Amino acid sequence: MSETVNIAILGASGYTGAELVRLLVRHPRARIVALTADRRAGQPMEAVFPHLGGLGLPTMVTIAEVDWSGVDVCFCALPHGTTQEVIAGLPQHVKVVDLSADFRLFDPEAYAQWYGHAHMATDLQKSVAYGLTEIHREKVKAARVVANPGCYPTASQLPLIPLLEQGLVQAEDIIIDAKSGVSGAGRSAKESNLFTEVTEGIHPYGVASHRHSPEIEQGLGWATGKDVVVNFTPHLMPMSRGILSSIYVKLVGETTAEDLHAALVKRYAGEPFVRVLPFGTAPQTRFVRGSNFCLIGVFKDRVPGRAILFGAIDNLVKGASGQAIQNMNVMLGFPEDMGLEQQPLFP
Amino acid sequence: MSETVNIAILGASGYTGAELVRLLVRHPRARIVALTADRRAGQPMEAVFPHLGGLGLPTMVTIAEVDWSGVDVCFCALPHGTTQEVIAGLPQHVKVVDLSADFRLFDPEAYAQWYGHAHMATDLQKSVAYGLTEIHREKVKAARVVANPGCYPTASQLPLIPLLEQGLVQAEDIIIDAKSGVSGAGRSAKESNLFTEVTEGIHPYGVASHRHSPEIEQGLGWATGKDVVVNFTPHLMPMSRGILSSIYVKLVGETTAEDLHAALVKRYAGEPFVRVLPFGTAPQTRFVRGSNFCLIGVFKDRVPGRAILFGAIDNLVKGASGQAIQNMNVMLGFPEDMGLEQQPLFP
Amino acid sequence: MSETVNIAILGASGYTGAELVRLLVRHPRARIVALTADRRAGQPMEAVFPHLGGLGLPTMVTIAEVDWSGVDVCFCALPHGTTQEVIAGLPQHVKVVDLSADFRLFDPEAYAQWYGHAHMATDLQKSVAYGLTEIHREKVKAARVVANPGCYPTASQLPLIPLLEQGLVQAEDIIIDAKSGVSGAGRSAKESNLFTEVTEGIHPYGVASHRHSPEIEQGLGWATGKDVVVNFTPHLMPMSRGILSSIYVKLVGETTAEDLHAALVKRYAGEPFVRVLPFGTAPQTRFVRGSNFCLIGVFKDRVPGRAILFGAIDNLVKGASGQAIQNMNVMLGFPEDMGLEQQPLFP
Amino acid sequence: MSETVNIAILGASGYTGAELVRLLVRHPRARIVALTADRRAGQPMEAVFPHLGGLGLPTMVTIAEVDWSGVDVCFCALPHGTTQEVIAGLPQHVKVVDLSADFRLFDPEAYAQWYGHAHMATDLQKSVAYGLTEIHREKVKAARVVANPGCYPTASQLPLIPLLEQGLVQAEDIIIDAKSGVSGAGRSAKESNLFTEVTEGIHPYGVASHRHSPEIEQGLGWATGKDVVVNFTPHLMPMSRGILSSIYVKLVGETTAEDLHAALVKRYAGEPFVRVLPFGTAPQTRFVRGSNFCLIGVFKDRVPGRAILFGAIDNLVKGASGQAIQNMNVMLGFPEDMGLEQQPLFP
Q1: What is the mean pLDDT of residues C278-292?
Q2: Where does the Semialdehyde dehydrogenase NAD-binding domain lie (chains A, B, C, D) (predicted)?
Q3: Calculated CA dihedral for residues D255, D260, D262, D267, nearest 10 degrees
């Protein structure tokens, strides 16, 4: 791999595309050579995102116009469902990090059930790595195509997986009450995401039917070696960025909440982006804003035999574009935090 | 009782005091004759709350200055802990609705444990009614002193109590994940409630230690006839008004989520302020803003044997001043919704 | 006019339509008999606005389905441009308050210039009253059709007109820097009004080209008897409701800022909805939220010969639906504040 | 100057202190060796700002405890009024960038008038440079002590000074209507800055009496060579970061708004942080969030002989800590944008 890698971003006109650009322009070994946005083809990036002006970025083009011979890495930030065929058609020398949901479910039947149509690249699916970096680093290292995890699944799996792997919490009784900012819904114009509809309020949505449920259950299933079904209840709240997962678990046997904390501290020691807070300290989404960090908190519950976990991330960074770059770094053998060193923006 | 009742509001310079004024000035049978605010004594209400000008309100005075002979009803919106002695010292002809927590816990030991000092009016406590109106209406009707419920306990008990009374959900495994606006913290200047500290973020607080836990457990205990311990986890989020309680329950025997819904619909039929939404419909806090409504939603869970309940209120209205007026109406034999007919303010 | 008037609301599925409903259901002499929303015809109001459930409202229908024989008053909250023909076609016994901009510009040439097409009901226009109630009350009283003012024009004209009428400020050098909440843009789904695009920021829009400019200039021209051109610069900011107009004026001759204040106090004495604050007191939009009040503040400027005026309203109430009901009250000889007595909602 | 400079930050527990840390930890030639916070002495930075954990920062100490022998540059982020004596007492080898207002007014009489007491370091004042970098770069380069400009003065002077220097706009008739986020008020607990008091509203404050007025007038006076008095009207609005200055000016002679634009484009060509947008394009504060950029927009007014200017910055970056680092870079001969290359955070 040469000093600098050439990067294409497919779907640059959405929030995750813009976030990739924001982070990659400061990555010392990345060079953005192609940006695509079918409906905005021919326009400069700053016509769509004025905060990304003056950066010498290439003009946006259609996917068909990309010259893949000069591309080393492709970030695919296309809408869910449109991605399978695009990625299946890319030349083999291009490494891919896919931010859509298209390759996240490894069971074609689960995919068909949740997305309403058969998967269109089941062969490719077999070689994909699931890019929850701290958990699946070795697979990511070896993969050509990485399925970047969803935002909710990232904030929910990181606290849970080490505990399930070690048999410290029960897999049968997990409740995940998650709160998300609005950027997770993307930039498309919908009445339900208008300022006037979102500000000064909160409500659950996708109750017992959100497509991130099977992704979470798949990851927890891998950790336990058996099928897992969880309660996952997302809520929409008035903030742009941030996800907080409040996770209610039952302890196994004599395990204590302090044991959970110790296990997580040990598991994530040395990880650059996962910070297990002191026992009984509450994570706040504002303290990860704009950064690739995941904060984890562990509390004793008043109900005997129970404990409470919290996971906080910026949904656009660790929940999307930041983790995608982290995965690229792993795939290319770069230092894992390269280009991701910026601190959170607070206040 | 004469045509019009004369009302004193103790602690008029806080948010619940202001909300009492906002609502009572439109109550056809209420006349505000005294407003107290020890540190603002001598000032007009609009010096503290400019939105309440031009209403012909009495100037604020100290509690000692109130002439109780002309007062029929006293709303006490003083800080927790200062209230017991004040109320114990009021003349017997004055009916009292206390918005503080001072008379909410009926077990003196529980009070001492959670508030760090012995209760100072244990005799009076015995005659107090707990003013969760829809549940304890008959006791409220007969009481001279009503302990108005806390905001979280209101949003949490209304969905749960009918189900526990009928044995439809298990009392041992209740998880209440609650989200509150900032007005619940009052108007006192604290760094943690600054705009810059709250906007664009969410975090849990008082985890497993919030003083509304024993109040909720007391109410659920009354409903089941045995001690109940619940997980209650409050979160602070960027909105002024509103509480959403997301409640995760286990079903008893063959009970279904639809059964829960049917039981709640039946229990609250005819109630002017509790609206059980169609099965599978999510309440939103913005749709109760400024009103005395409590919206309840019921959902099937993907996890077998589980269901999800939601309760949404405006914490300053149904969670405080509105319910206080509702209780006054019950105590005085007025129509229960008198002065509380305004619709929610949206957007 | 009988005890109760029957009311039709055209365009009930927008924010101003919903606000009309919120206010009219508490108006003691109004009964809503028809609600129209072409694309939502057949649905109940609460399918569109869940906060307006349980009110016994009529199902929404198309305009063509309305039986006008039973309608006394029609509020027209249709999009700009579609209204002229609808109103021109209504039976003569129906009084009309039009909340669109279609009849606000009395000069057909000005209309054509700003709206890009010839006015389609120029005859009807001649008999319309411009419903800035405090200024044009007598004309409103006599009119069958009232053009309800725009939100910006209301907040801008009320402080200025008395001063221009009396020749206290110069008409040639008026600068209006206005800040609006997002509900002014309506409920249609636009990228620019998404929560993520609006929160935590501010920007000007429609600079020197906003269609409320000619409406303001028309009103100020009437007050001075000559043509007036003003600087009007609107800004979009992250709040749902509220407009603040900051108005920079030059004093005539020896006039002082205190003189302006005295003139406004005198002019608006006895007005139920216009409150001139003490000299040097700043209005805040949050202190009018949900109410029909207009707060006016007057300040001395450090620059000699200059003064500063502020006008604050809730754009959906005094800037739209509240003023519309105020105009209906005037047209029907009801007390002007009937149904509009509720206090602002703060916090 | 050695490869790395050692830096002390006085007043690290405020927002500008935290922002200095956020930026300096990524500055390749800066090393933070001392952080002071008198009331938090002995605590780690992350006890005060959890988002700044894991950075190996020194524990906070009192000012008296700092060992100045190892310090090259001191950023002083102390409250206004306390700073003069502290800076006067620092050893001469320490270069200073002062973020307070203490050295911004170069006329001792103006200082005494606006701050209510005599300046305590008038000798030192004479050698201070006013650090509006783009305008006073040469003086900054030569100075030991730089007075870092206020946030409002930065956003207001950058659009105006080139135009006044060239005589394109009149100095007698400048109106600056400015809108600020809440972080400008700092982190101290005040009722007026509570979330509940700020959200969903806007209001003017400090009208004709804000202490940034004389600082703006001083800068404009330097540009014109005569005394200037301006209208400066700040507003507080619900966002954490950002200032927008909307500036209304009169053109000199035949000058057009397009001429103003051309002059600004020319003046700021090559500046890394000042971006003059295309004529008639509106700056938005959200497009500078977290960055050191200043966006400038120029519009034609409908009123003949007038034009409109807009300046947008992040008040904590270009309006405080970012410009302070920019000034340090100039003082030390570093590339001016070193450590300030991050792009804005949007959404």
Answers
A1: 98
A2: 6-143
A3: 130
Tell me, yes or no, if C15 comes closer than 8 A to chain B by beta carbon. yes
pLDDT given for residue B162 in this prediction: 98
* Ordered strands of the A243-250 beta sheet: A203-204, A231-236, A175-180, A243-250, A306-313, A294-300, A274-276
Residue B151 falls in the annotated catalytic set: yes
Residues in chain C: 347
Q: Could you give the percent of chain D with pLDDT greater than 70?
A: 99
Asked if C203 has any chain A CB less than 8 Å from its own CB, the reply is: no
Assign A1 a pLDDT band (cuts: 50, 70, 90). Answer: very low
CA distance D201 to chain B (A): 12
pLDDT at D1 over 50: no
| Between residues A121 and B2, the one the model is more confident about | A121
Kindly report the length of chain A.
347
- Is the pLDDT at C148 greater than 90? The verdict is yes
Q: How far is D285 from chain C (nearest CA, A)?
A: 5
pLDDT of residue A82: 85
Q: Are B276 and B296 in contact (CB under 8 A)?
A: yes
Residues D12-36 have pLDDT tens digits of 999 999 999 999 999 999 999 999 9
Strands D231-236 and D203-204: antiparallel
Are residues B52 and C199, on separate chains, in Cβ contact within 8 Å? no
D2 pLDDT exceeds 80? no
Amino acid (one-letter) located at D55: L
Q: How many CB pairs under 8 A join B and D?
A: 62
Q: Which pLDDT score, from 0 to 100, does residue B1 have?
A: 47
Contact state of D51 with A344 under an 8 Å Cβ cutoff: yes
Chain A residues with CB inside 8 Å of B316's CB?
Answer: none
Residue spans of chain B under pLDDT 50: 1
Q: Give me the amino acid identity at C95.
A: K
The structure tokens 């504040």 sit at: C337
Estimate to the nearest angstrom the gap between the alpha carbon of C111 and the chain centroid: 18
**CB contact, 8 Å: C237 with chain B?**
no
Of B15, B188, B238, the CB nearest to D195: B238
Q: Could you tell me if B201 lies within 8 Å of chain D, comparing CB atoms?
A: no
Residue D300: predicted pLDDT: 97
| Residues of chain C found within 8 Å of residue B183, distances taken between Cβ atoms | 347
Determine the CATH number of domain B152-315.
3.30.360.10
Catalytic positions of C, written as ranges: 151
Q: Are β-strands B145-147 and B129-130 bridged in parallel, bridged antiparallel, or unpaired?
A: parallel
CATH of C5-149+318-332, one of 3.10.20.30, 3.40.50.150, 3.40.50.720, 3.50.50.60: 3.40.50.720
Percent of chain B with pLDDT over 90: 98
* Distance to chain B for A144, nearest Cα, Å: 34
* Fold annotation for D5-148+318-332: Rossmann fold (3.40.50)
CB pairs under 8 A between B and C: 67
D183 half-sphere exposure, CB direction, 13 A CA radius: 31
Residues contacting B104, CB < 8 A, separation 6+: B130, B147, B149, B150, B153, B215, B218
Q: Please give the backbone phi and psi of residue D113, each rounded to the nearest 5 degrees, phi first.
A: -65, -45
Question: Residue ranges per domain, chain A?
Answer: 5-148+318-332, 152-315
As a whole number, mean pLDDT of residues C171-180 equals 97
Q: What average pLDDT does chain A have? A: 97
CA angle B277, C32, C52 (to 5 degrees): 20
CB proximity C240 to D under 8 Å: yes
What gap in Å lies between CA B34 and CA B27, rounded to an integer? 16
Alpha-carbon distance of B31 to B9, in angstroms, equals 11
Contact between chains at A238 and C199 (C-beta distance less than 8 A): yes
Neighbours of chain C (3+ CB pairs under 8 A): A, B, D
Chain D residues near residue C246 by CB distance under 8 angstroms: 177, 204, 233, 235
- 């990036």: which residue's tokens? A45
